[in-house]
Amino acid sequence: MNYRVVGIVVLAALLAAVPSVASEYWLVLFTQILIFGLLALSADLLLGHAGLFSLCHAAFFAVSAYTVAILQTRYGVSTIPASLAGLCMGTLLAAVFASAVRTRGVYFILITLAFGYIVWGVAYRWASFTGGDNGVTNVPAPALGGLQVVSKAHYYYFVLAVLAICLASYRILTTSPFGLALRGIKSSESRMRSLGYRVGAHLYVAFVISGFYASLAGVLYIYYNRFVNPVAASFPISVEAILMAIIGGTGTMLGPFIGSGIILILRNWVSGFFHYYTAVLGLIFIATVLWAPNGVMGLIRSWRSGNRGEGA
Amino acid sequence: MTAIILQAINGLSLAALLFLLASGFTVTFGLMRVVNMAYGAYYLLGGYIGLSVMRTTGSFELAMLVGSVAIVILGFFVDRFLIRPIGSNHLAQVLLTVGVAFFIGEVCLAIWGGDSLKIQLPSYLRGSVELPGGIYYPKLRIALIAFGILTATSLWLLYHKTQIGAVVRAGVDDREMVNAIGINVDRLFVLVSAVASFLAGIAGVVGGAFLTLNPGAEWDILVLALVVVIVGGLGSLEGAVLGSIVVGLLDAYGRWLAPDFSYFVLFGPMAILLLFRPTGIFGKEH
Which residue of A has its CA nearest to B34? Predict the structure, then answer.
């Protein structure tokens, strides 16, 4: 327990020190890692805790980003109401898409994939409203009250603060009776059902909460990126979020961020000298599934418990 | 009135193309519980290979043959060395085959570039024919519909009227039992998977003449094929036929009547259907 407290303090201190030691390149990359880590974490709430493999999390991410972008640029709505509207729209969409929890296994995977494509299709085709392929550009910097967050370091701290709140709430959620019930459903749905748990309702609520976190990542993303196009809603984003969670280690809080760091640093590095990054990404998918299905956290865990190769 | 009929034929020709892809996906899933998301990439690669063959030799038949045989070989290696080692975990299968699809997609981009390409048609498929009622319609699309019907019929006969089909159906219902009575299901799967890859390759060459080949086309076509499979029910050949027709028609009328929301027209009914019948029309619990 003490180790954990020390670990959290050290980690927090390191993250807080990033702007003063890192160059702007790394600062921007770190901000991106944190934002996509949150997206991966939201997908992992379903994958690691409830055992559902969703392929539509880019949809909530993109819908909230688009909502904020359109409200800010076209209607001049200020940061806080626009962000809240973005969160609401993303979460509402999750409440609709959560109907997918009526299905399991392959059907769930395929249906969430198809749902994700609806959102991408609308973002891409409904050009008069979403800007089509060009998306929405020139989103202003966030302003909290009279305070404009202009510098990259300030925005990094802002993301870090939001994340701290997110992680605390995530921790409370996953250790609550509700979170434990989700883990129970993941292990044995029929047993939980016979114990009298309303499995469907639990999964539905988990899906909506997960959508909320993904929407939050979307809001952080739009103020980071300052523009959004249909790529944000595309299938590769959804599947990459899942991959990040798996590479880091599912069912943990740190894992998705480790995964996000590995993928994004690798992308930035590889793109520098190799034109076909997606091919490398494809190989990472294959390698992860074949050789590291439990991710980095799984490796650490098996190393700590001394029985290598067995995994968690 | 003419427009309504034209759109119906448009929808049916797309349905024929989708059926080629969806039938393979659904039967391989039924037999081995393998979700292979790389079929879209197989389609695209088959199409590009066909395109190159067509450009060098000028023979459409040869393009179809080389394109599909290349995919059969590729599909065999992917099955044997990547999919089989990971067992029956759907999550792993999806991630792995998505990885394979990303890789193939980038290889295609590196070789054939990012422009939309179209396979040149042989002279006997160019032009249009006059249908009863004075409607002129491209020959290719009529030929595609005929080809789809032919494929569906032969698959149906193979599946329901032959010994191999009987064994495959038995394998779909209860794989362990079929194994236990001495039939090598793994070997059977190699055969079924080869047929599926073959159809995906053919679909690519035909689709390259009928639609276009471009980066990203693999996902567009795969998602349509998945909707076919979801609507029809995983593992059901009849479901794939019905699903293809439904999706083909919805897509054609959707693009015509509500172009901005054509994806919505396509996926909305699917979502509603699933609320009432989560396993699709002909599907069983998996």
Answer: A106
What pLDDT does residue B32 have? 76
Host H or E run for residue B136: strand B135-138
Structural tokens at position B67: 């394109």
Q: Which residues pair with B31 in a beta bridge?
A: none
CA separation for the pair B82, A291 (Å, rounded): 11
Q: Give the C-alpha separation, B189 to B33, whole Å.
A: 11
Mean pLDDT in chain A?
A: 89
pLDDT tens string B202-238: 999 999 988 889 988 888 899 889 889 888 888 788 8
Domain ranges of chain A: 21-233
Helical segments of B34-162, H only: 39-57, 60-78, 90-112, 139-161
State the CB neighbour count (10 A cutoff) for residue B282.
20
Dump pLDDT digits (tens) for A219-238. Answer: 999 999 989 999 999 999 99
Tell me, what's the pLDDT at B89? 84
Contact status of B105 with chain A (Cβ, < 8 Å): yes
What pLDDT score does A307 carry? 55
Beta carbons of A278 and B106 less than 8 Å apart = yes
The packing angle between helices A277-291 and A235-248, to 10°, is 40
Per-residue pLDDT, A207: 96
Tell whether the model's pLDDT for residue A212 goes beyond 70.
yes
CA distances from A267 to A29, A62, A279, A281, B152 (A): 11, 21, 11, 8, 44
- At B130 the three-state DSSP class reads strand
Exposed / middle / buried, residue A152 (Cβ in 10 Å: 0-12, 13-18, 19+) = middle
Q: Which residue in chain A has the smallest CA separation from B38?
A: A282
B117: three-class secondary structure by DSSP: strand
Q: Which residues contact A118 (CB under 8 A, 6 or more apart)?
A: A59, B263, B264, B267, B268
- Domain ranges in chain B are 2-276
Partners of residue B228 in chain A, C-beta under 8 Å? none
The interaxial angle of helices B2-32 and B185-210, nearest 10 deg, is: 160
Structure token digits, residue A218: 């979307």
Fold exhibited by the domain B2-276: ABC transporter involved in vitamin B12 uptake, BtuC (1.10.3470)
Q: State the pLDDT at residue B286.
A: 52
Average pLDDT over residues A91-100: 92
How high is the pLDDT of residue B51? 94
pLDDT at site A103: 84
DSSP labels for B249-285? HHHHHHHHH-GGGHHHHHHHHHHHHHHH-TT-SS---
How far apart CA A304 and CA B7 sit, in angstroms, is 63
User: In this complex, do A103 and B106 lie within 8 Å of one another by their Cβ atoms?
Assistant: no
Distance, CA of A253 to CA of A237 (rounded, Å): 20
- Separation in Å, CA of A223 to nearest CA in chain B: 27
